[in-house]
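Slide 14.
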Amino acid sequence: MMDWTDRHCRVFHRQMTRRAMLYTEMVTAPAVIHGPKPRLLDFSPQEHPVALQLGGSDPVDLAQAVRIAGPWAYDEINLNCGCPSDRVQSGCFGAVLMEQPALVADCIRAMRGETDAPVTVKCRIGVDDQDPEDILPRFIETMAGAGVRHVIIHARKAWLKGLSPKENREVPPLDHGLVLRMKQRFPDLTLSINGGITTLEQAKTLLDQGIDGVMIGRAAYHDPASVLIGADALWGDGFAPDPLAVIDAMRPYIADHLATGGRLHQVTRHMLGLFTGRPGARGWRRVLSENASRAGAGLHTIDLALAELQASAA
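Slide 15: predicted structure.
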């Protein structure tokens, strides 16, 4: 979800669920060390619980990045061993690390030495010609030996040779059954599943089958109301605001963002899918897409989009 789940997106998503853990977009350890730290690490207190997702393969760099991030008080630090993009392959992090579990374990130990927050791992079921039935349990076992108690498993292989990042999200077949078997094999670990899950009904089915958690990415971005509003019911929490209430809840945050020199589209680009599948959704998207990036765009622009939504739905 690089370039997608920035801090504005997470604040928006938090208005729809009080319980779900929100993850940052992946940030590389060298970027945290050498880059603009407030821009990379700042987040709103209302985002909690929120996890910092790091990319890297150097234990020293990762430990330093975790140490630098300490004052921001993230609720979890996650090491990404699942992203298949060209950028992460060339930098020897992401899914390519599935081939080097001992190195990942060294990274985890170094990271855990710099924080009291849980350090978790996100991985694939394997890469390229690896046999998932063999590699995945050994990878999980190695992570557990390094002190990891929670592994998030994208239930697809990553093909580092021959498939684009987009194809890697769609072409390799899903194997939810394998992940469920891993939960049976490692009952003392927290195992979450990712990949191909687009509805709360699917999430509940997997939870009922014994998996500990469900991670939903693109579906939660493109159709947030369907995926996030009502998600708290999985915890027995009745929090389920109407989409119009979500917009009202965003107004103070947007006003503060504009007052400090921010642009409206930086926030509203994440809100385009709020009414997906509902009458008037196209008008809502059109008004925001055409106007939110213009000079002087503000809360009145949202009102115009709402008026278009209501007019189109009438």
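Speaker note: Residues 243-313 form a domain with the Four Helix Bundle (Hemerythrin (Met), subunit A) fold (CATH 1.20.120.1460).
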